[in-house]
Amino acid sequence: MVDPLSVEELLRWALSAVLIVAAGSKIVGGRESRLALSSFGVADPRMRAALWIGLIGVEGALGISVAAGVPGAAEVAAGMLALFGIVLTAAFLDGRGGRPCACFGRRSRIGFVAIGRAFLLAAGFTALPHLGGVRPATQTWLAIGLLIALAALALGGVALLALAREIGELRLALGPQSALALDGEGPALGERLELIDRFGGAPELALAFFSSTTCPLCAALRPAIRLVETEPGVEVETFDEQDDRDVWWSLNVPGSPYGVVLDAEGAVLAKGTFNNLGQLESLLAVAERRRAGVAGV
User: Fold this and answer.
1) DSSP for 262-273?
2) Using CA atoms, how far apart are residues 51 and 13, in angstroms rounded to an integer?
3) Domain with CATH 3.40.30.10 in the chain
4) How many CB atoms lie within 10 A of CB 166?
5) pLDDT value at position 86?
6) Tens digit of pLDDT for each residue in 239-249?
7) What is the pLDDT of residues 176-206, one digit of tens each?
8) pLDDT digit string (tens) for 122-162?
9) Cis before residue 257, ω within 30 degrees of 0?
10) Does the 194-291 domain belong in CATH 3.30.70.1130?
11) How far is the C-alpha of 16 from the C-alpha of 139, rounded, in Å?
């Protein structure tokens, strides 16, 4: 018969899962997780990217090490979480409360919850090596273990998709094929369009996808459009050549597939014809750089 888990074993698995989830949430958060590091004074994009990768690696490695019972791993994790708590406290006292921290996904914010969570986790990792061998009933933990395994599989799938997205962004940074943007076609860059009213809320980037039912390439691009729709801060609306012919005419859209990217105020950040996911992402990358005010774009 298999011995039931002890309290120490249960806590060790739970705490290691927290670290692995924290690492996975940063992968899922992608660009927003990297940008959140600016809340702590990291302004250089390259430094943010390096720190983001480092945090994912350290949290993931410590999570696995704690789960495997590697000596000293719990103590290192406790020190790291205590440091996180101190950094969060300093940022909060500096008036940065409410800003994103990306501790556990893009919705995490600097505040009492994040600070308390960091110090509570630090206390848990500190206590871990000193717990004894009290063992609850076996079948209860078997059921919990099954649920945890299923949740881990789901998280792994999401993380894999997000990682594929990040690889795509890195490929864009290396100079992908750009969307075709010609003068005299489409709206003028910087022009504010009432088209933004067709988008719900106030997205950071609004992609107007100009499509046609007679365009086979448009149909082939639907999976790429759905992938972009999952990007945090990006909202997509489709404008059909027949149903929205007045919009096509007013914006001088040359044909489909065509994209226009707007900011939250409706200003045109990027436009162009695209034939694949790489070109579509290059359109979004240009828009993101213009939104951030990068010179020379």
Assistant:
1) E-TT-BEEEEEE
2) 26
3) 194-291
4) 19
5) 92
6) 998 888 899 98
7) 466 676 777 888 888 898 888 888 767 788 9
8) 888 888 777 655 444 555 555 556 656 666 666 566 556 65
9) yes
10) no
11) 22
